[in-house]
Records
---
Amino acid sequence: MRAREVFVTGYGLVAPTVLDAETLFQRISDRQSCVREHPLFAELGFPNTAAGYLDDEQWRHLNAGFAGDASGQPRQTVLADYVARQALDHAGLSSGAFRQVDSGLFVGSNKYCANSQELDQVSLFLDRQGRLDLDRYMQRPARAEHPFARRVDQQTAYLAASLGIRDHVYTHSDACAAGTMAIGSAYRAIERGDIDLALCGAVELMANELPYSMFNSLGALCQKPEFGAAGQSRPFMRDRCGFVLGEGAALLVLESKQHAERRGARPLGRVLGYANFCESEKMTSSSRDGSTYAHCMEAAIEDAGLLRYAVQHVNTHGTSNQVNDSCEAHALKRVFGKMLGDITLTANKSAIGHSLAGSGAIEAVLSLITLRDGVVLPTLNYDEADAEFPELRLVNQPTRQAVSVVLSNSFGFGGVNSSIVLGRA
């Protein structure tokens, strides 16, 4: 007997410059980048100031919509609350709906990174050898916000409490694959009958100075300011030189077909298949021949009960990193072979930067809109004439295409690879 069908019935999204998914989709369709000069990076004198960041106007809107005192909450929690309420409204659900059935919460989010102001505060409690005196630090006056009070699951704990979810509550901290893994985990739980309703996706806020320094030390960030902020994320181009930091959040409502039909919900799409593997190749790249990425894609397609030719569109991981783009290109050629010329591809990070855990969830929502509207989003800064892999059919203009099946990839540092197959409702 085939496992239960899983419907997507709602989603919420916040990304650089935008507060909802439809606006983001239209912005990218209009070939407008969400990557800008980050005032903080400019103030600190960083050699490259580009980032896809949430600006002060967006935060004013997010804080104003928070039910309680936003100033007493970590920003990740405020963002998660806003996007969750947006997703529930889109699905036609009340916040109490999760208490009435077996339900789950699956949220991707990586480590909390202190900013320079917080590190300055910590530095006041260093001893003469430069070590943190925890006794002195803990005796300081209590504050709602301080670096050591933050948890990687803080937004998960908040949402679970506010929505009354007790059955399955998980936080995925799996680098760049965390958002896709959260959706995949929710899909699995519904498919096998453990739960009927799930909220899943990712929340990530790492477009600040500490992540910049960490990723730059790995040589992972673009350092060609001459491209201009909007031109620096250029997946699969010969002159690509690294990714651009981004941030944002997306949460999806998943339901079993039976639960959705009982309440008369309108499905927006379906999760058809999912695969996740952890390789042991290298911390920052995969097998150079693309074999491990290919294995993940093939497993997701097989899990969906499909043959390769059923896939019409691929939302690539496409970070603009030299090695990762190359690995993914070789993997796509291994999986699809001669069929590759008939499949359109896009790389959303060209327009919004790389929001790490958030990227897979944001890309899943954009893929669902492609399925619904029959429009493939352009890859910004892409020119086939100067592309390293011109055999890949990456579109650089919004393209009308009736799409029934999308494969979306997320391949994370640390060797965590995830692919998900989405279908039209």
---
Amino acid sequence: MDNRALSPYVQEKLVRENPPEGVYKIKGSDHCPFFSKPQSLHKILAEIVQIP
């Protein structure tokens, strides 16, 4: 994950303080995965819509 809009420390802190149902990481993506890794994002979104 190469999202540098927030430091990795801040990203992990936000997840710890506001635990979501799940965390998905796209290796090699940046702040806009719909541009940098659209196929990977699509795969994750397709998985998410299957969650009851």
